Amino acid sequence: MKLWSILGNSQKLDGGAMFGNAPRAMWSKWLAPDDQNRVPLACRALLASPLNGKTVLFETGIGAFFDPRMRERFGVQEERHVLLDSLREAGFGHEDIDVVVLSHLHFDHAGGLLAPWAEGKAPELLFPNATFVVGQAHWQRALKPHPRDRASFIPELQGLLEASGRLERVDGERSRALGDSVRFSFSDGHTPGLMLAEITGPERVDGQAHGGVVFCADLIPGRSWVHVPITMGYDRNAELLIDEKRVFLEDKLARNVRLFFTHDPACALAQVTRDERGKFGVTHEVAELHARPLAA
């Protein structure tokens, strides 16, 4: 099995919102803001093939579904659908994808499912041959969002996914589409039912898989958020997220599971560390993955 990091459309969002209660003097050293206080963010997907005999895409980024006014509001930097270009560069088309795994349905993680915006054209679902895998608890949130995050969902998307006849909602560690090759866990701090997908590693110790890769989604958007107290203003429950993140990182450190980051502009993959004071960090940072073996 090989892994590719697949870049989608990039964003610039307010640094204060991205770093919650961290002061600007601190977070501006991690990501330099522009003159509007916005920091650069990637929307990076992970492609794995063959995984359980299938070509699997973990998330799709924000895509190009916004009209020009909304694209400007949310800091989307490119007009074209960058994810489709990146897939082609890796040797794949969206028609080649057998499974799309969605940690959650906020537009910056699921918007790439849709064709680019065109004047007068209704939203259109891409990936015609894919099974769409999403967590059951988060699916319910998407159907009935809270006012706090209603604007984070694409109103038409849930109906399109259901009408496809290819939607699988997961409420446990495994999915029908991916079997034992991917293990799911769940987090509620950012949004209810956020689904974290771990590609099972090649080693097993005491019955547990070691050496895999986990898609961190918005539990840990990038390297700066590995530090446990750092959260986003967008998080539903920051204290819960901090507790979830600590348990998550302890587990990944113990089992040598590497972290895949969706929003870090300069790092796709890294290994967890912890210093003598107990502070988590990362090492062996990798900017891009190009047909990289899982065990490499």
Describe the protein.
The protein has 296 residues and is of the alpha+beta class. It has one domain: Metallo-beta-lactamase, Chain A. The chain has eight helices and 17 strands. Strands 8-7-6-5-4-1-17 form a seven-stranded mixed sheet. A hairpin with a 2-residue loop joins strand 4 and strand 5. The chain is globular. It starts with a strand and ends with a strand. The model has no long low-confidence stretch (mean pLDDT 96).
How does the SSE layout of this entry go?
Layout: E1 2-7, E2 11-14, H1 15-18, H2 24-30, E3 38-41, E4 44-51, E5 54-58, H3 68-73, H4 82-89, E6 99-102, H5 107-110, E7 131-135, H6 136-143, H7 157-164, E8 167-170, E9 182-187, E10 194-199, E11 203-205, E12 208-210, E13 213-215, H8 238-254, E14 258-260, E15 269-274, E16 280-286, E17 292-293
Parallel strand pairs: 5-6, 6-7, 7-8, 13-14
Antiparallel strand pairs: 1-4, 1-17, 2-3, 4-5, 9-10, 10-13, 11-12, 14-15, 15-16
Produce a short descriptive summary:
By secondary structure, this protein is of the alpha+beta class. The chain has helices at 15-18, 24-30, 68-73, 82-89, 107-110, 136-143, 157-164, 238-254; strands at 2-7, 11-14, 38-41, 44-51, 54-58, 99-102, 131-135, 167-170, 182-187, 194-199, 203-205, 208-210, 213-215, 258-260, 269-274, 280-286, 292-293. It has a single domain, classed as Ribonuclease Z/Hydroxyacylglutathione hydrolase-like (Metallo-beta-lactamase, Chain A).
